[in-house]
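Training component of the fellowship. As part of building independent skills, the fellow (R.M.) carried out the full modelling exercise for a liganded target. The chosen ligand was XIL. The inputs are recorded below so that the supervisory panel can assess the work.
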Amino acid sequence: MSIRLRAGLITSAVIGAGAVILSQGAAFAAPPTPPSHHTPAPADSLRALASQSGLRIGAAVNTDLLATNSEYRAIAASQFSSVTPENVMKWEVVEPTQGTYDWSAADDLVSFAQQNGQLVRGHTLVWHSQLPAWLNAAAPSMSSDQVRALLKKHVVDEVTHFKGKIWQWDVVNEAFNDDGTLRDTIWLQKLGPGYIADAFRWAHEADPRALLFYNDYNIEFTGPKSNAVYQLVKDLTAQGVPIDGVGFQTHLDSQYPLPDLQNNLQRFAALGLKVAETEVDVRTTLPVTPVEQNAQIGGFTSTLQACLAVRACLSYTVWGIGDAYSWVPDVFPGEGAATIYDENLQPKPEYTALQQTLALAAGTPGRNDPRR
Ligand code: XIL
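Fellow's submitted model of the complex:
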């Protein structure tokens, strides 16, 4: 994959500082009863605490670790009420050879989720990265019609394969540049900007009950990119394109502030859309200083508070379980420590901060989730 440098962000607030006001009063929906064969989650687990606000708390799951590391598997099952495949629903994994699908790893994750009473965020259908090598080689010399047929088949086949099993799909991922222009991808080059609306229409036809999301990074705060996504989803909604929500990846860096996440989530919600924090992590330069860790704790706390304060925010997903398995060190040299579990899968103060934030919010209004 390409290396991307991001202007990440984060607040320097510590737990409790800058607390958002959580409105009181509305009833919250009871979480669905998990199947009886799974071990009940401890009362102080993230998932048990989040359920008291009707929020799904998720993690990106590495399916190799799920299969081989029992400690990792136990955490994934007991702490989270939603899972996102970190890689195994991406095009390069599901269709390594043109015309030959391999759903096995993703199917295993869906079964794991079902066994553990978890919902699945499908990730991701249309992206410029982690495409199969055969596609990268062939697409540039294809006609627009051929590329369109290829993309449509991919979206329809994948959504159909998982029909009824996916709660939220990230239909289109990272279509914008930081300056708010559309990213120059093979899809834009061959199909023009209409590929985004088309992808949502195709996905909706294949699974009308799945919630369909646009997902991106650096849109957590207002600015050119967030404004461009806002305009896009406003236009799509006005045109009757079947889009249900916007995913805010929330890859933060301890050195940058995060000014206005809650207000920004709220303005998207005001369009009638759901929102979700889909890939939360807070990286920092290594080794971590106490000041940096405080900033990391503040980043997890304030992003969760923002989601809890917005009823349309359906889920809060951390990107990776364990600093040893995070994508950050590979992509941001010299940085890491971005997850809520340490190198030995022990919970960090960042984990405790999420626990405390959820406990404080328990009983506040539930989610405005049409699927519950
Ligand atoms: C990352 C995975 O975490 C890595 O394992 C993989 O090598 C590259 O992709 N935005 C996204 C995610 O939408 O799919 C990316 O996941 C992280 C950035």
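The panel noted the following from the submitted structure. Residues 51 and 350 are 19 Å apart (CA to CA). Residues 1, 86-87, 173, 249, 279, 327 surround XIL (CB under 6 Å).
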